[in-house]
């Protein structure tokens, strides 16, 4: 039989199914798989069966995947409709996450490259997202990983779901608990003890940007609590010798406790003073170690650090510190 004639006969068989059979057998599947109401499901099914140019499966194609797809909750028509949705998503995909207006995920994630993403360059070219590369030891030896933020994660997931035919690759994203660092360029946000939305804290002179900048190194950090111990800091940032810490203080903050043992710095009055130590962090790698240690319970904020060099002499420098964010969990 001519292939086109066979296709038309198969199509006619699908269209001629009685309405009673449709109501009895199909609607619950469509509602369960796609979230349609009963009237919406009827309209979609009617359009699907009337669309002679739509994506249809031959008997041979369906038989190849029937067992697997029925186990996933599809029947033949719902799977054909799913294929149409994938194809439509692929043609309309422009590198923007479908749910970006409903989510504000600021977390960081890591996943092992694979499938269409053989290396970090192929990920950037295909999906158009910013991603950092890391190498590590996996079960198969030396492995390349990608580090992405929450927005990039959604873009990658949407891109994979939009491919037609579907790609049998779904990366496992591991959420990293890391203190966020988002230093604004045109305002002092975020700064300890200051409401950065006020006009006086916005940029007044483009030739005098706010410091420190997002990617400025080396950068002074003010530490309180366990990071004031040189051996603890040495182990945290993986350096060969104990670091030299400078006695220091900051204003605009208060120290509380979290979990009955962790020190938590929060905003305080402008005159409130906190004593601790300062250390010059020399690289983004060392800073990343610190951010992972502090976890997402804290955030990196700007502050003014008064360095005590001895004999009552102080030097003020612009630096950073970790501010606690979960006020409802404080002791």
Descriptive account of the structure:
This protein is of the alpha+beta class and 331 residues long. Helices cover 34% and strands 24% of the residues. The chain has nine helices and eleven strands. It has helices spanning 3-15, 19-34, 38-50, 59-71, 76-92, 120-127, 150-162, 230-237, 284-294; strands at residues 108-112, 132-138, 141-149, 174-176, 219-223, 246-251, 253-258, 262-267, 273-281, 298-310, 313-324. The strands form three sheets. The protein has a five-stranded mixed barrel. A four-stranded antiparallel sheet has the order 2-3-1-4. Strands 7-8 form a two-stranded antiparallel sheet.
Helix and strand topology:
Elements: H1 3-15, H2 19-34, H3 38-50, H4 59-71, H5 76-92, E1 108-112, H6 120-127, E2 132-138, E3 141-149, H7 150-162, E4 174-176, E5 219-223, H8 230-237, E6 246-251, E7 253-258, E8 262-267, E9 273-281, H9 284-294, E10 298-310, E11 313-324
Parallel strand pairs: 5-11
Antiparallel strand pairs: 1-3, 1-4, 2-3, 5-9, 6-9, 6-10, 7-8, 10-11
Short summary:
This protein is of the alpha+beta class and 331 residues long.
